[in-house]
Amino acid sequence: MSGAREQIQTLLEGAERVLIVAHIEPDGDAIGSALGLAWALRRRGTLCTVACADEVPASLRFLPGSEEFVARWRVDEDVMVVVDTSDTARIGAIYPEDARHEVPLVVIDHHTTNLRYGDVNWVEERAATCQLVLELVTTMGIPLDDVIATCLLTGLITDTRGFRTRSTDAHALQTAVTLVNAGASLGDIMDAVFRSRSSTMLRVWGLALSDVHLEDGVIWVSVSQEDLERVGAAPSATEGLSNLLSTVRDAEVAVVFRELRPGVVDVSLRSAPRVDVAAVALSLGGGGHRQAAGCLLEASLPEAQALVLNALRQSMTEKTTAAGGGTRRGVDDAGHSGA
Ligand code: 5GP
Ligand code: MN
Question: Fewer CB within 10 A of the terminal residue: the chain, N end or C end?
Fold first, then answer.
């Protein structure tokens, strides 16, 4: 793995201009990794542009440089870096259909489901991609400052839901200590990312929760376009809802089905440690982590529900059989920003 990191270091040290790309519907880890790397490389004179197909969510606009994101692919950069993104579909509309790698495409990601679509792929399991960026910046000998540290700590905090996921190991906590020592404010970041909900969001959640289903250890809700229109909410209003569902004692898996437009449904999955929702998401064309994953389906809401619930049932039955009839445990804290 460190071979890839060394190659990335060499590429970045030789580059004058770098484009750093975050995934669609960006979260704190995508934005924090992109900005943390950009600010670090700028300290050594590299010209960096940050890009994302979608807008930076309001809860992340406190990050220095968050207003700089452009929705474009490469123009004249010498190297491209895609962070926290497991496949090219997650790069979104800015990814050219006839993408040719005229310059090296570097992938830095912590998703085990990563499809290694870059020329150099540094994919290693960590609580957040921001940890990999910190490791890279440190080996490049770039001194940390409060700006870099704030960006990177934000990704670690959002991907661990405030240090509550099982991915929060000693290394993740050590990273947090390093970043706080470098000047990041834990309290300011926690407030910015976890006290950012609007009352409209809660109205959407209310509509969804009024029709909650719990069957065979799977808890799920759906949010239709009609629901969003009724309360005047953006599709991003469901962020955190799957985390909330995952706190229900009798559920092993939590699912939120969200209709983005007619015939397109986004699926957000959370699970207890026994169930691997990344495998289920991957089989449906998505990806993620064992206990927090997702996919995008070209289907109506009822079709998406049938597809995902069947896939989950099958996966959970296989697991139960393999484990000799395993006991049911509550869904653990395992997800991303929110709740
Ligand atoms: P969330 O449910 O918070 O949107 O996402 C949970 C995890 O699943 C994140 O790590 C995210 O990157 C991943 N994920 C969510 N949706 C998709 C998707 O459509 N495709 C892929 N590859 N990963 C996804
Ligand atoms: Mn991440």
Answer: N
Q: In angstroms, rounded to a whole number, what is the distance separating the alpha carbons of residues 71 and 50?
A: 9
Q: What is the band of 117 on the pLDDT scale with cuts at 50, 70, 90? A: very high
Tell me the per-residue pLDDT of 209-251, one tens digit each, with 9 for 90 and over.
Answer: 999 999 999 999 999 999 999 999 999 999 999 999 999 999 9
- Whose alpha carbon is nearest atom 13 of ligand 1? 288
Backbone angles phi, psi at 180, to 5 degrees: -65, -40
User: pLDDT class for 152, splitting at 50, 70, 90?
Assistant: very high
Residue with the bigger pLDDT between 100 and 95: it is 95
Start and end residues for every CATH 3.90.1640.10 domain found in the chain = 2-194
Dihedral (Cα; 318, 322, 328, 333), 10-degree rounding: -80
Other C-beta atoms closer than 10 Å to the C-beta of 269 total 29
Please give the Cα distance from 144 to 308 (Å, whole number).
43
> Which residues contact residue 170 at a Cβ distance below 8 angstroms, ignoring those fewer than 6 apart?
none
Evaluate whether the domain defined by 199-322 bears CATH number 3.40.718.10: no
Ligand 1 closest atom vs CA 23:
12
Mean pLDDT of 278-300: 97
Beta-bridge partners for 257: 222, 267
Q: Measure 213 CA to ligand 1 centroid, in angstroms.
A: 22
Which residue's CA is the closest to the ligand 1 atom numbered 1?
268
What top-level class would CATH report for the domain 2-194? Answer: alpha beta
> What's the pLDDT at 100?
78
Average pLDDT of span 2-11: 93
Distance 316 CA to ligand 2 centre (A): 25
**Closest approach atom of ligand 1 to CA 296:** 19
* Chain mean pLDDT for the chain: 93
